[in-house]
Amino acid sequence: MRWLVGWSSTAAGAARIGSAGATGPDGETVQPVGSQLLWGDPDPLWAVGDWRPDEIRLVSVDARTRIAVLGICGASDEELRVGLLAARGGALRHLTAWAGSYTAVVQVGRRITVCGDLAGARPVFHTPWAGGTAYATAALPLADLVEANLDFAHLAALLAAPDVPAALHDSTPYEGVRRVPPGHALILRTGSREVAGYDPVASLAVAAPPADPDSAVDAVRDALVEAVRVRLSAPRHVPDIDPGPVPGMGPAERRAARGMPVPGIGADLSGGPASGTLALLAAGLPGRPGTLLGHGTGAGERLLAVTFNDLAVGGREAELERAGAIAAGPRVHHVVVAGGEEVLPYADLEGPLTDEPGPSLVAAARHRARLVSGSADHFTGYGAREVLDAHPARLADLLMDRKRRHLVRPVAALTRADGSVMVPARVYGAARRLARTSYHAGLETLAERLRQRGFDEPGGAVGASLAALTWARPGPAARWLTGEALAEVSVRLQRATSRSGVGPGQRPGDYRARAVLARQAADLRVLEQAAEIRSQRLHMPFLDNQVVRAGRALPEALRVQPGARAAILRTVLEGAGVRELPPGWGAPSHTSAAAARTGLRVAVNSLVDLFATPLLAEAGLVEARVVRKALRAAAQGEPLPLDGLADLVSLELWLRRLLARRGTCWTGTPARARAVPAGIAPQRGALASGA
């Protein structure tokens, strides 16, 4: 796990807070463990973790005007200097417009600016401390620093309404530690805090400006190609040296057994359009991995494409054939990793403590089994669906812009899937209601549904689309929460509607799409930490700022059409010179739900034991008996929301790992700060006081 941390102190507190550490309330001096100092007093900044040398860049204009960029950034030193000068004048967007995935920190005198990303995969956190403000790109170090307790109201909202920003607001699982929303920057001036947005959003006041579909797709192509190119241009890193042979094992088996990735560049190749696009781009760029032997720079280095073959769950034969066809060229070395019941979701629930909880914890071992056969730099197609696809609520955006004719094809596709002639009227009516419903009314409706436990929703593709045509909806785990927890989330929603001037400032479809992207990016961040392989970097180009911006500029009328994502990625590849794609390119995959149900059925006994005396019940969020009954029913095939059970199990696992840890992110004498020092006290009747 890698993060950066620093603090901004008041003028009065600068004398006792500096790069040598900080004097806590008991007189001890604290410093981040395993850190390297990037700059010192009076507002120091550290990088913590196994950062590569090329992932940390510092550019200065003078002693008090400087920028630190951590991560993969395609800007030259001169471009960083220009961005620094622009930020000195207050322009922040320049700092987020370079290719790559990075965090930029700017210091101008006593003013510190920390920019988060648009998707939320590289968040920024802050908390009051020692009369000033401490900030970091991870929440747990700040929770350790202030010895924060758990925020049970946030945990309730995380289960009851995970896709509703108003329910989560800027809170984190730790009391007092706050999150900077995606698309915003944290600005600190001698300890005082300000959160400012740097990217405009579509206005509710006027219709969206017309966009040329061809130009928009070209922008996606350019952004995606540049995102891949900047990662391939970075220096190669070879993992730790192999200590020697093992009898009966080849080099690849030896690396996998020791948890070491293969040197070089690799990519997932599931057979889907997103991973296939990245693999083909990475293999086909001139002079990059995938170059034929004897031609260009890096000659002979082939792209390592990894395909996971789930032997426990069938139905992926067509995808495996497409992956094999994509990898048939001489530029790609194809590896198929087979996994049985031992890597099903819920099969292996051991793993490291992550910064925050996320539903991907239940399948981390499954992903780790695939990634351990990958390369030191490994591309994944995560985020493509959320960046390029159309959320069903975008149908309401089209009605608001008087573009009814563009609803014909998506509604016709839903009609064919359902087979009912009433589908067009139902979908059009739901979209029209959403277009005429205010944001505050949508939150009030959700608050009422939580109080009344109204969780029944129609099934099937049409039912899912109708349920999504709203400003806010309950999460899949909400049905198993206690009445007190649901009431607490309802109160949080009502407080959000009562705040003056609070609103999305954008259309319902765009608002819902941004919220879903932020939720997915947060879970992918958890997955990256839970399935981490030493010396390996996971690259998710679809979550880069410039790719997200290009995706948001796609016309609504284009993205709502059936098969739009596959068509866009096909056009991207054609623009990059790849014209021959295997049959069935872009066909949807439905195996994840089957794997989750199979894994739940196999591991139901261990999951029931996990909820014998759950910490979630001690916190007053669930009743253990209710969850155990739901687990047994789902294992027997009852149509319960499996993603809701994944939310419950992953949160229980995270709480257990958090309370079992004995270390801390800080060193100091005589005391060592640690989050949740008192553990979980019974919270029944006390949730309302934690808001």
Can you put this structure into words, describing what you see?
Helix 3 crosses helix 16, helix 5 crosses helix 20 and helix 11 crosses helix 13. By secondary structure, this protein is an alpha+beta fold. The strands form four sheets. A six-stranded antiparallel β-sheet has the order 5-6-1-12-11-13, with helices on one face. The protein has a six-stranded antiparallel β-sheet with strand order 7-8-9-10-14-15. The chain has 25 helices and 21 strands. A hairpin with a 5-residue loop joins strand 5 and strand 6.
Write the layout of secondary structure elements.
Layout: E1 3-8, E2 17-18, E3 21-23, E4 29-32, E5 35-39, E6 45-48, E7 56-62, E8 65-73, H1 77-88, E9 100-108, E10 111-115, E11 125-129, E12 132-136, H2 139-146, H3 152-160, H4 165-168, E13 178-179, E14 184-189, E15 192-197, H5 213-232, H6 251-257, E16 262-268, H7 273-284, E17 303-310, H8 317-326, E18 332-339, H9 364-371, E19 375-379, H10 384-388, H11 394-400, H12 408-418, H13 423-435, H14 439-452, H15 460-468, H16 483-498, H17 508-530, E20 537-539, H18 545-552, H19 556-559, H20 564-575, H21 591-602, H22 604-610, H23 615-618, H24 624-635, H25 642-660, E21 666-669
Parallel strand pairs: 16-17, 16-19, 17-18, 19-20
Antiparallel strand pairs: 1-6, 1-12, 2-3, 3-4, 4-21, 5-6, 7-8, 8-9, 9-10, 10-14, 11-12, 11-13, 14-15
